[in-house]
Amino acid sequence: MHLPAQFCLLFLLLAMPPLTAQERSGEQRTCRIIYLNAPSGAPEKLHLFDGKVSQEVELPRMNLSAPYTLPPGRIRLRMLPEPVTDPKQIPKQAPNVTVPATVRDCYLLVTTDRRNTVAPVHLQLINARADRFGKGQILWFNLSPHTLKGEVGNQKLCLPPQSQTIMKSPASK
User: Rounded distance, CA 108 to CA 50, Å?
Assistant: First the structure.
């Protein structure tokens, strides 16, 4: 499948990094971040505010970030250029995403939003529950305005614009 970068933005996770509670010590709740198709001059770091704590986070382009700890319960994550000193002063336009209380581990998919004057990014939450993904499964995102079609192994892929799907493992071993 050959698609020009300017027409298509795909994200696939071939091997989901282990984040489950069974695979790490404690009952920590985490998120990892990736910034897809970041343009030249895009921020490399921002501050992630969870309603109580502000922490500087990296916005890696090619790999997932290190895990960042999140508090329990339903929270709204916001990204800002500076640390939060007064939560009442956070602009309403700040990029944000709600994390339900039931989501233990997640990925934050960051894409560019040049219209956002607070921080030029958009956030999308991906629930990374271990029981959601089997070994070798692939998570595909089509963030383009075009339908994507192709073959992976012996499976056909047809992904409408602005959609996502989980594909079965393309190999038996």
Answer: 13
Token pair belonging to 56: 């500087």
Tell me the pLDDT tens digit for each residue of 7-48: 334 444 433 444 443 344 457 899 999 998 899 999 999 999
Radius of gyration of the chain (CA): 17
Q: How far is CA 76 from the centre of its chain?
A: 15
Say whether pLDDT at 169 is over 90: no
Q: Name residue 30's beta-bridge partners.
A: 69, 105
CA 40 to chain centre: 20
For residue range 95-111, list pLDDT tens digits in order. Answer: 999 999 999 999 999 99
Those residues with Cβ within 8 angstroms of residue 101's Cβ, 6 or more apart along the chain or in another chain: 72, 73, 74
* Kind of pairing between the strands at 121-127 and 105-112: antiparallel
pTM, two decimals, is 0.76
User: What does the DSSP 8-state code read for residue 106?
Assistant: E
Sign, CA torsion 82/87/93/95? positive
